[in-house]
Specification:
- There is one protein chain.
- The chain is mainly α and 185 residues long.
- The chain contains six helices and no strands.
- Helix 2 packs across helix 6 and helix 3 crosses helix 6.
- The protein is globular, with a radius of gyration of 16 Å.
- 34% of the residues are buried.
C-alpha cells in the first residue's frame, strides 16, 4: 500500500503543478496556489459528497465531474471572501443549482460569484475549468491508470481535490488576493 500511496501522491503533485502552470498561462494565477485554512476545511467536510457525485458522473461526463469541483472551490472562496460567518455552515448541497448537481456551475457562477452566464468572465472561467479538466484527463490517460479499478478511484479522488483547490485559488486571485512572502526574523 505504501508504494500505491507514493504513486497517488506523486500524481497529485504532478497534476497540481500542471494545472497551476495552465492557469498561469491563462493569466488566472501567478504560479502559486492561493488558499486559506477555512477553504481547506470545507474540502475536508465536502470531499465525500463531491467524490460521490464525481464517481456517478465520471463515465458519462468526465469533464463535468472534474470541472464542477473547481466551480465548488470558486464558490466556497467567493463566500469566504464576502462573509464567512454567514456561510461557514453551508452544506455541500447549498452549492447545487435548481436542478441539483446538473446546473451547479451556473448556480455558482450567477448566484454566488455574481457573474452573468453570458459575461466574458463567466465564459473565461468555463473555458479555464474545462481546460483544467481536460488536462487532468490527459494526465490520467498518460499515466495509464486502468479504468474502473481501485487505483482509478483513488486517482479520481486526488483529481477532484486538486480541481477544488484550483477553483478556489482562481477565485481568490480574481478577488484580488495575492501570495506575498513574509520575512520572519
Amino acid at each position: 500500500m505504501e508504494d500505491r500511496k507514493a504513486i497517488y501522491d506523486s500524481f497529485e503533485e504532478k497534476l497540481r503543478a500542471e494545472l497551476i502552470k495552465l492557469c498561469t498561462q491563462f493569466e488566472k494565477l501567478n504560479g502559486k496556489l492561493l488558499g486559506s485554512p477555512d477553504i481547506d476545511e470545507k474540502w475536508d467536510e465536502y470531499a465525500r459528497d463531491v467524490v460521490s457525485d464525481a464517481v456517478v458522473n465520471f463515465n458519462g461526463y468526465p469533464v463535468v465531474a472534474l470541472a464542477w469541483a473547481a466551480y465548488l472551490g470558486a464558490g466556497v472562496a467567493s463566500r469566504w471572501d464576502c462573509g464567512w460567518e454567514a456561510h461557514k455552515s453551508d452544506k455541500y448541497q447549498d452549492y447545487y443549482g435548481a436542478q441539483g448537481y446538473d446546473d451547479m456551475d451556473e448556480h455558482i457562477t450567477r448566484d454566488i460569484i455574481g457573474k452573468a452566464l453570458d459575461s466574458i468572465e463567466a465564459k473565461e472561467m468555463a473555458a479555464l475549468f474545462s481546460s483544467c479538466a481536460e488536462k487532468a484527463l490527459g494526465l490520467i490517460r498518460h499515466e495509464g491508470f486502468e479504468s474502473q479499478s481501485i487505483e482509478a478511484y483513488y486517482i479520481l479522488i486526488r483529481c477532484v481535490k486538486v480541481m477544488y483547490q484550483i477553483g478556489a485559488s482562481v477565485e481568490l486571485k480574481r478577488l484580488g488576493y495575492n501570495y506575498v512572502p513574509v520575512n520572519v526574523k
